[in-house]
Fold each of these.
Amino acid sequence: MKRLPKGTFINMGTILIGGLIGLLLHQVLPENIQLITMQAVSLAILLLAIQMAMKLPEELWIPFIFSLVLGGVLGEAMGVKALFDGWESWLRINFQLGEKGFSEAFIAAFVFFCASPITIVGAIEEGINNKKELLLVKSVLDGIMAIAIASAASNSFFGVAFSVIPLLIIQGGLTFLGFQIKGTFLKSVLAQISAIGAAILIALALKILLGAQIPVANLLPALIMAVIITGAYSRLKLRF
C-alpha cells in the first residue's frame, strides 16, 4: 500500500467529481470566482515551495545554483516552453467553449492536468518523500478546471473523464519512479531534486500571482541536472 500513488488517485477523483459538477452546471464559472480561486491556490503552492526549499542543506547551494542555471539554459536550447506554448495555441484555436466533441475536451484536459511543472514535481515528491501536499493542491486546481471544461457541453464531460487515464500513467508513473530512485540516489541528490522542484513552483506561483515573465517550463530540465551535478559534487566531496 505504501507504494501506491495515492496522490494521483485523489487527483483522479477530484477531476471526475469536477467533471460531474461541470456536466450539471453547463456553464463556465464566473471570472471573479476563477480568479480568486487561482490566486488562493497559487499562494498555497508558494508557501509549500518555500517550505520545501528551506530544507536544502547549506553545503548544497552551489550545485543547486549550477543545476538551476544550466537546466534553464538547456530548457531554452531545447525549446521546452515553445512546445508548451504550441499546445496552448492549439487549444485556443481548436477548443472553444460551446458544443464541441469528445476529442477537444480530452486534449484540453490532458494538457491542463498532465503537462505542468506541479505534475512532475508533485509526483516525484510523493515517491521520494511520501508527501502528498503538492498533489493535493493540484487536485483542487484540477477539479475546478474540470468543472470549467466539462461545463462547455454535455459531451465534454466524457473527454474530461477519460483524461484520468493518461494522468494515471504519467503522474502515477513519475511517483513510481520516485519510489525507485529513493533507494538508489544519495540523500543529497534527493534533497536537491526537492529544492529545484520548489524553485520551479515558486516561479510558477509568481507568474500566476504577479504576471512575472518567467519561462517556467524551460526550468524543468533542471530536475535532471540536479541528479547529475549534485551526484557528481557529492561523490567528489567524499573523495576529498
Amino acid sequence: MATKIQNPDDIDTFFHGLALESDGYRSFSRRPPVRSQENEGEDEPASTSLQALAPPVRKDRELASEPAPIDSTGADSFFAAMDNALSRPSAAGPRRRTACLRMYSVAEGAGATSLTANLGRLWAGEGRSVALVDDASDSLLPFYFGVRRQGLRFSSVLVQQGASTGEVQLLARNESEDRVDESGRPWYAGVLGQMGVAADYVLQRAGRPGRETASEGSGISLLLIGAEASSIYKLPAALERLGRQEIRLVLTRFRPELDLHRRLRSWLSERFGDRLAPVTLRWDEAADWALTAGRPVVDYAPSCPLSADYRELGDWLAESPAFRRTAETLA
C-alpha cells in the first residue's frame, strides 16, 4: 500500500516510509536528523521543510544581470563533422569469419572439456579471440580459467602470452534451448551475434552425439575416443548419429606402454585412414591436477606429455584445410 503523505514538505517521513515498504528503496532511506548537544533539551522539530533542505541562494546570483549570450558558431562545425563521419564508407570491411570446431565424445571421460579449454587457451595466447561454448548448463569450462562457479551463462577472461593478448569468451547453453535453431544453425550462433562477440574460433563442447546432432551447422567435428574397448564398442552408433558431418577421430587417454592401446590405435588407423587425427592424446595425471588448480594443462604443466600433444593437435587443426574452409559469419 502506498504511503499517504500528510505534509508534502515532510521529506524524511516520505523516504522512511518507502524504505519500510519496499526493500528496493532501502538505498534511498534517510537517517533521522542527529541532535547535537547544544540542542539537547529542546523539542525536536516534527519535520524538515523543503525550504530548510534547499541550498542557500547566493546573493551574487540574485543581483546578477541577464546571462551573457552563448556563442553557437562551434555547433555548426561540430554537426558538419558528424555528417562527414556518417557519410564516410565503413572502414570495418567484411565481417569476421569464424572457424567452428565441435568436440564430441563416444563416452564420458574422453577429455572433451579439457581439450576444449586447452585449445582455446593456446589460440587465445596467439592473440586470437576465442569463444568456448558448452552444451551443458553446468559447464566446467570456466573452472579451467579460474572462474569457480557453475551455472554461469557467460563469462570472459583475457589470456596473455608474451606480447600477445587474446580473449576467451565462455558461454553455456540453457537447458531450455534447442541445440539447433529453426534455420538449422547451432544454438550459439545467434547468441554470440546478439552479444556482439566477434571470434576467430568457436570451440563447442558438444558432449555425446544425440539424435539431433546430424544436422548441426557447418564446421569440422572431432570425435574423441577413449583408449578402451568399451569406447570402440560404442563407436558405430556415435558415427551413425553424427550423420554426414565432417569428422576427425581423436584417440585419447592413450598409454603407449599398454599392448591393448597400441592395438586399438593400429586398428583405428587401418579402418579410418586419414580420418584419424595424426595426434594421439596421452593419458596424463596432470589433467586432473590442472582442473583443481583452475588452469589449463598447458599452463599448469607446460612440459608434460599431454601439453605437448595439445600443442601438436592445435597446430595440426590450425593448418588443416578442412578446418579453415568451414569458417562462417556468425549472425
Amino acid sequence: MQRSIEKARERNAHERCRRFAAASLKVPKDDALRHAETRGEDLSQVRPEYNHATDAMCIVGRRDWSRGLFLDRRAFLTSYDPAQDDADSSILFHILAAAIPVCAGINLEYYFSTVDNVNYGSGSKLPHNLVALLGVMEGASSDLRTGLYAQMVEIHEPMRLLFLIETTPEVMLSIMDRHAGIGILCRRDRLDDTAPCSVCWLCCARWESGLTLTRCTPSRPTIASTCWKWYSITTSSLWMS
C-alpha cells in the first residue's frame, strides 16, 4: 500500500509540473515530486499549486469507464458500481448527496473567481495580508477579499460542471426529487425558469441494459503506452479523451 501511494504521488506531481513555468517538461518523476513539495512550502510562491483549476466534469461510475483515458486533471472521479446497489439506489443517493454539492461548489468558486476576479475573486496574491485568521485583505487596509486569487485561476476555463453518472434517467430524477439540494442544483431555478442550472448532468444506462458507449469524436492522438508521452509535449490544456 505504501509503495502504491508513493508511486501515485510521483505520477501526480509529474503531471502537475507541466503546468509550472519553473519546471521542465522533461523533469524526472522523483524530481517532480520534490519540486511540487518545495513549491507548497515556499511562502513567497504565488503559485504553489493550481488545485482544481480547469475542472470540467465529474464521472460517477465504475473505474473501468475511465481507466486508460487521459482526462488532463479536469475530472473528479467517483467510484460507483450499480451492480452492488439496491432497488432504491441508496448507494448512489448518498454518493451524489456529497459529490454534487461539493464538486458544484468548487466549480462555481472557480467560475466566478475567473469571470470577475475583482468582485468575486480576491485579486493578486502579492499584496495579501492575513486578517485575524478570518481572511485576507490587500495591503494594510481594505475590505476582506472573497473568492480565489488571480494566480490561482489564470489557467482556468470557466464552465458549468458536467456530471457523467452510470445510472438511468429515471433513477436520477428520483434522486433529484428525494434530495432537495441535488434537485436545485440540477434543475432550473424554481423562481426563475430562464436561469440556467448550476450543473449539467448526463445519465448512461445501467450495464444490465447492454448499452454500449461509443466515441463520436474526431480522430485524436492515441496513447500506446503511457499518458506521459502525451502531456509531456505541451503546457496547455489537452483534449479530454
